[in-house]
Amino acid sequence: MIPSIHDRGSETIGLIRYLYGPGTKEEHLDPHLVAAFDPLTPDPGRDPKATYEQLQRLLDQPVNALPTAKRPEKHVWHLSVRAAPEDPVLSEEDWAVIARRVVAATGIAPDGDEAACRWAVVRHADDHIHVIATLVRDDGRRPRLHNEARRTQAECRRIEVDYDLRRIPAGDGTAAKRPTSAERHKAEREGRDRTAREELRETVRRAVAGASSEGEFLGRLKDAGLLVHTKALPSGDLQGYKVALPDDRNGNKEPVYYAGSTLAPDLSLPRIRKRFSDGTPSQGPATTPPAQAPSGPATARRRTATATWQAILVIDRGEDTEAAAHIAAAGEVLDALAKTSAAHTRAELREAAFAFERATRSHVQAERGRERALRQAARDLIHSGPALGRGEDGATTAMVIDMVFFLVTAAAHWHAKKNHAQQAAAARQTAEHLRAAYRAAADMPLAVLYQRGRRLSQPLLRQQAAHLRRAIPELVEQALTEAGWYALAATLADAETAGHDPAGLLAEAAERRELATADSITDVLVWRIRRMADLPADATAMPERAATAAPGNRRTVRRPVAGRDDQPRRAR
User: Fold this and answer.
1) How far apart are alpha carbons 426 and 412 in whole angstroms?
2) Which residues, 6 or more positions from 373, have their beta carbon under 8 angstroms from its beta carbon?
3) pLDDT (average), residues 324-349
4) Cα separation of 471 and 495, whole Å?
5) Bias category Low complexity: which stretches (predicted)?
6) Closest CA to 141 of 161, 172, 182, 113
7) Beta bridge partner(s), residue 81
8) What is the 3-state secondary structure (H, E, C) of 255-315?
9) Sign for the pseudo-dihedral over CA of 395, 397, 401, 403
């Protein structure tokens, strides 16, 4: 059950007309009262003799009884409470009880308080109600509404239990401020997919992804087309910043600016500075791009996959402060991927980054500096430029999405263990968007590998199956029945041609993360082996295999890891 406290207003009659009117999309089918402070409150929805003005005068009576100078400028309080789509349809009596509980919890009308504020509840759909109240009590005093939003949320959590409704994860105060109703209506009028607040938050997050200094960060904001206003201290040091969309104007045609701290808690200038506290991010573990791999987006994606793997180890086995820092940096990687990926994956990656933003913040203090490799990966992605949707660019995009999926899954498990309900839910939602992005990115390169595997001789296929049986005997039957088996067989053949020991690669790839819960064992192994063996992700760059590598010329690439006991435990 989701409560939303809307902006306060100055005209009771305006809100009444909206609640009893047809709605912006003709969605108000049967508006009527289900409860009010007085059982005799007139209902313009069901009583043909009742008028909007009668209801307005009744609600406003305590306000109008005050001297004009003492009346609050914005005295109209508006709350909506919505049930989840899967919840049963509640009766009129149920909604009336829920409304009374909410106005009591917020301080609008505490139980037993005969001088409380006046209120009424309008229902015009099965799944939600609207509460309208005036913020002057019958005794002329103002209500105590301190922490009204938090108290409303807490009461709704209790209502969910009492009525056996869907349990909404409780918040912890680290979420970004939600758009106001005025901002949502403005975005709808202007045909925007998202409010200005949300667009700015996304753009600022992309600007900070991998940035190494304030100057670079502010330059990226301007390059993205935002209006940027900074405030300096007398010393000349930057005190803060605010941003606006060029076409988002107020009634006076002036830009509507938002300070970074009002977009999200971690986008304030002091919080952003902490990301730069160690200076320019280091390169992390030394990585040498393979000779056959092109420079640019593909190389950046390979390096990101490697940095992502190291981050998974930390989230699974490291200290909480280190894990929190890596999860925050993972958000930068997702922002960078969404900004630089090809059109056919960009939409899902954008939604993934947007969803994961909630998972990047918790009350666990992040230990900055340990996540430098991930921040450098985000920086590399940005500076390598847009990736093509084909060839090595497209295939390495599938490779890195596959690995980032594991990182997001590890983050979801970490948050769940810490009882961070909203963050865990956000990470799981992110994983679903990454599944869709992965399918879009992987279809073509895996199809090429599949066809190459189908063309392998039967003796060679049996040889690759034998390697598989030796390396992961407990999962061999599942792997051999998957559609991706031929793609894996082709990858093993490519590795053998390049001088590697296929069984050794398989064993190492399998021990890096357990595979029992993977959607596709073969997909995961394909990308791990092609990355570990420095094989082109795009199989069309490989010559057709002519012969098996000569005995004694096989080698296995071993990456330095923290030890077998440090391996993460879950898989996609």
Assistant:
1) 8
2) 281, 282, 283, 284, 285, 307, 310, 311
3) 95
4) 15
5) 540-551
6) 113
7) 3, 129
8) ECCEEHHHHCHHHCHHHHHHHCCCCCCCCCCCCCCCCCCCCCHHHHHHHHHHHHHHHHHHH
9) positive
Which amino acid belongs to residue 143? P
Query: Hunting for tokens 């808690």 — which residue is that?
Result: 265
Domain 2-162's class? alpha beta
| pLDDT for residue 516 | 63
The token pair at 216 is 């670079």
DSSP secondary-structure letter at 119? Answer: E
E-only strand ranges, 107-168: 119-125, 128-134
Q: Flag whether pLDDT at 558 surpasses 70.
A: no
How far is it, in rounded angstroms, from Cα 94 to Cα 92? 5
For β-strands 128-134 and 119-125, DSSP reports them as antiparallel
pLDDT at res. 545: 52
Mean pLDDT for 551-572 is 40
Q: Which two tokens stand for residue 240?
A: 């803060």
pLDDT average, residue stretch 484-500: 94
Residues 526 and 491: beta-carbon distance below 8 Å: yes
Strands 76-82 and 258-259: unpaired
Residue 315: is its pLDDT beyond 50?
yes
CA separation, residue 239 to residues 214, 263, 269, 273 (Å): 11, 17, 8, 11
Residue 175 identity (one-letter amino acid): A
| Confidence (pLDDT) at 291 | 37
Show the CA angle centred on residue 405, arms to residues 400 and 410, nearest 5°: 130
Q: What tokens does 276 get?
A: 């730069």
Cross-sheet strand order for the sheet of 258-259? 227-232, 238-244, 258-259
> Token digits for 563?
């030890």
Statement: residue 101 has pLDDT above 90: yes
- What is the SS3 assignment for 417? helix
| Domain boundaries defined on the chain | 2-162, 193-275, 290-441, 455-557
Strands 32-36 and 2-5: unpaired
Prediction pTM value: 0.76
- pLDDT single digits (tens) 29-85: 789 999 999 999 999 999 999 999 999 999 999 999 999 999 999 999 999 999 988
As a whole number of angstroms, the distance between CA 398 and CA 288 comes to 20
How many alpha carbons lie under 13 Å from residue 342 in its C-beta half-sphere?
Answer: 22
Report DSSP state, residue 557: -
Question: In DSSP terms, which residues pair with 249 in a beta bridge?
Answer: 255
User: What was the pLDDT predicted at 543?
Assistant: 65
Q: What's the chain's average pLDDT?
A: 87
HEC string of 35-67 equals EECCCCCCCCCCCCCCCHHHHHHHHHHHHHCCC
Report how far residue 103's alpha carbon sits from residue 188's, in angstroms, rounded to the nearest whole number: 29
419-438 residue pLDDT tens: 999 999 999 999 999 999 99
The pLDDT, as a whole number, for residue 150 is: 86
In 3D space, the residue among 448, 456, 443, 408 whose CA is nearest the CA of residue 428 turns out to be: 408
